[in-house]
Amino acid sequence: MAGTSIAQARKAGLEILDRLAPADRFSVTLFGSAHRHLFPGLVPAPPENLAVARQAFAALDAHMAGTEMGKTLRAAFTLGPADGEAMSPALLPITDGEIWQSEALVAEARQTGHRAFTVGVGSAVAEGLLRGLAAGTGGACELVAPQEGMAERILAQFHRLRQPQPRDLAIAWPAQPLWQTALPAGLFAGDTLHVFAGFTSPVSGMVRATARRHAEDIEVACAVAESRSADLPRVAAARRMEELPDAERLRLALTHQLPSSLTNYLVVAEREVKAEELPALQKGAADARRRMGRHGGGRPQSHGGGGALPFPIRRGPPQDARGRGGRCPDRSGVLPCR
């Protein structure tokens, strides 16, 4: 990260330090092409430890190069509670880069008992891993741009990780569904719960979400509302595809025209004015060896004058989706990968 992103991360880090209580335990890990822990483990938050962390955030800059997030996460997994301490550790990683071996990282986070509250910055972030890491550990994921309140979104993640985790989340529908998308592993105050289900016929009545937090029963109910939006089935299909085998994923992708790892998105744009014949080939005045170097290779040389390059380019008629020649109208669509 650099520029606005670093400034926003610095701002959020300092605000988080201001909200720590002396009994809280924390650590800070700075990373780029390498990582550095401020403390050897999770430490209490007295003024002297907070001063060390504030100094690190105040000097935070993009001087560590690269984004070696995988090694950093594995190192952070070792910063768990001391033996005998009843504590549920949580991570708040903030990154704008790609991460590899995501499945292995999620498995390691589960084994160590860490919950991950991930923050992805910008458009090149490893969204799949950050969402998977959060969902697989009972955390939450935020994807932000530096200009859209990044510091506030990071702070919201901090408030989530301090909340007690609800258990036994369930949805009661007015009728028995044919299918239902998976419930999230983590649910927090202020979040919106998106769950999709399919039925054989229209339903009416109340939908109830229930959960337990400590010894408290929680219930939220709402009435079924009719929607004629053509986009809602596509959104539901996209969510279902995350949980289905390849054959069913491909069927839904083709039915609802959804891009996926099993399909290609094809766009064909027809020119307003089309050439009816192949272009005529012309030979330039300069010969090939003189324009491309003595041996026909290397950097092109300029000798003045005009003329076409001596390598003609042929353009055939447009190809349809299966590679056959023919004229294609403007259209787009999703096709299975071959």
Walkthrough of the structure:
Helix 1 runs antiparallel to helix 2, helix 3 packs parallel to helix 4 and helix 4 runs parallel beside helix 5. This protein has 9 helices and 15 strands. With 338 residues, the protein is α/β, with parallel strands linked by helices. Strand 6, helix 4 and strand 7 (115-121) form a beta-alpha-beta unit. The chain has 3 domains: 4-161, 3-Layer(aba) Sandwich (Rossmann fold), CATH 3.40.50; 167-223, no CATH class; 231-270 and 317-336, no CATH class. The protein is globular. The protein has helices at residues 4-18, 47-58, 69-77, 102-112, 127-137, 150-161, 231-241, 246-256, 288-292, and strands at 25-26, 29-31, 35-37, 43-44, 90-91, 94-95, 115-121, 140-144, 167-172, 179-180, 197-198, 206-213, 216-223, 263-268, 331-336.
